# Entry
Amino acid sequence: MSKLLNLLQDGRFHSGQDLGHALGVSRSAVWKQLQLLEADLGVTVHKVRGRGYRLAAPLSLLDPGRLSVAVAKLGWAVEIHQVIDSTNAQALRTVAIPLSRPLLILAERQDAGRGRRGRTWVSPYAANLYYSLAVPLQGGIKRLDGLSLVAGMAVVECLRAQGLSDAMLKWPNDVLVQGRKIAGILLELVGDPADQCHVVLGIGINVNMKESEAIDQQWTSMYLQTHNSVDRNALAIALSESLASFIHTLETNGFATLRAQWEAQHAWQGKSVHLISGTQTITGKVLGITDQGSLRLEVDGRPEVFSGGELSLRLRDDS
Ligand code: BTN
# Structure
């Protein structure tokens, strides 16, 4: 079925006869496969008498050959799935057998994409980037303080290189364009945080998605910002290169050396915000972050430091 999708991904018309010929099957078998494509993957195929079949919109499918060559240069392995529950969940399952090198897991679609604080990450087929990097850590997570923050910096670097010059960070690791969320990061840890463990860096970027009624917050995508379809393979490769370089800087110099750069890209630097933790809300002004990546807020005239995966920031209405 993925061979048929590969033939159709250009969004042009292909006759049933040509498709059957390329796949070595009859025209009626092509028709059956097309129905399966629509039912299983949620892609829409248009049929026009005398012209053949075409996808409602062109797709940029993940290319295993191109991706594995590119990530091998970084010393990583890659695993690509058509449909999976969650690339993070798959990464956590995989590291039950310790990894000897970083493993990148990508999928065309996630059926149970996970966001921070128990939310769902909307993950339609071949529309966006669903990216999880599992990294084995010998000396515990302390060595990579600030990892989720530098992942955000890597995403911002890639988006800016693609023309989204106003991509900005929102603590701890959302990426916004014009106040709308375009990417999110979910870091999960398995093993002994002080010794042998694996960290899974899950990154979701809204790439070619044009609409979604399932997202319950202000969002955007690269396509909606630039009106150009993005090559998801090129984006995954650029992100991997940027991430590898940031992780190297983090390992050698520590997060303190990246802190000023992070603050310069923080959309809400100096703004009045509400910091929400469960049912508790703290109001303050964003001063920046610490050398470990915790949030520095001025609360009632005094600087205070906050950290933790369950925290989230909201802009104060009058800021
Ligand atoms: C957030 O809530 O902002 C974090 C979203 C993280 C989504 C990505 S998509 C790839 C990886 N797999 C998941 O299930 N989640 C992360």
User: Anything to note?
Assistant: The chain has three domains: 2-55, 64-262, 268-315.
